[in-house]
Write a structure and sequence with these properties.
This protein is of the alpha+beta class and 224 residues long. Helix content is 26%, strand content 29%. The longest helix has 17 residues, at 157-173.
Length: 224
């Protein structure tokens, strides 16, 4: 018998990781619309084996073992990778997802399995120099972050804003031909244009006596 509070909620740990990734083959200079970006989440688990048994038991109630369906399970670097592909005829906005349960983590990617596969590659053959946190700009931005921070966020605003502009152009293209234009598609700015004015934003969450303090800061863009 599966106890939802004990086997699912009770097994969720205190650590959460999340990030946004560009689809494979996308250009940083001209990123795709924001709604086409892929996402990655990871939640720590108190007992990964128990969580996986509970999840498999729930899945078995809806997906008979061995049946062909939209959820495919395959081996990847010694881990079980579960990939959901939207069935044919699903709305164009429908996205697939993939998940894997590792030693102490539930990892999920929304979009393709690529962000999850990248994370599993890092677990299989760790390379500290290739870590996002090893990037020079990230290390510099977080150099003064307090050791006891409960939340650390870093976002590169340059491709982010370019992606949001691409989303506005995409939304305009979906409107009726005689509708008033929302934006000037011909003037869509690239990441390089935003780099003249923006850099990144850092948000730090810290517990202090009697309060939770959230601080957000962004430095000036580099001088041209």
């Amino acid at each position: 018998k599966i106890d939802f509070a004990r086997d699912f909620v009770g097994n969720l740990g205190a650590h959460v990781l999340s990030g946004i990734a560009m689809p494979v083959g996308a250009s940083v200079s001209n990123p795709p619309p924001y709604d086409e970006m892929e996402q990655f989440f990871a939640v720590s688990l108190a007992d990964a084996a128990a969580f996986e048994r509970a999840l498999e038991a729930v899945k078995a109630r809806f997906i008979p073992p061995g049946s062909a369906g939209p959820l495919e399970t395959r081996e990847y670097l010694g881990r079980k990778l579960h990939v959901f592909t939207p069935p044919g005829g699903a709305p164009s906005a429908s996205k697939g997802f993939a998940y894997a349960i590792t030693d102490g983590w539930l990892m999920v990617s929304v979009g393709s399995a690529a962000p999850l596969e990248s994370a599993l590659q890092g677990l299989h053959k760790p390379d500290p120099a290739a870590s996002f946190w090893a990037r020079g700009d990230v290390r510099a931005a977080l150099a003064d972050a307090p050791a006891g921070a409960f939340s650390v966020q870093f976002a590169d605003l340059r491709p982010l804003f370019a992606s949001l502009c691409a989303l506005a152009v995409k939304a305009q293209a979906a409107r009726e031909p005689d509708a008033a234009p929302l934006v000037d598609a011909a003037a869509q700015p690239s990441t390089e244009v935003f780099a003249r004015h923006l850099s990144h934003v850092v948000t730090i969450g810290e517990r202090r006596p009697g309060a939770l303090v959230i601080q957000t800061s962004t430095p000036a863009a580099p001088a041209p």
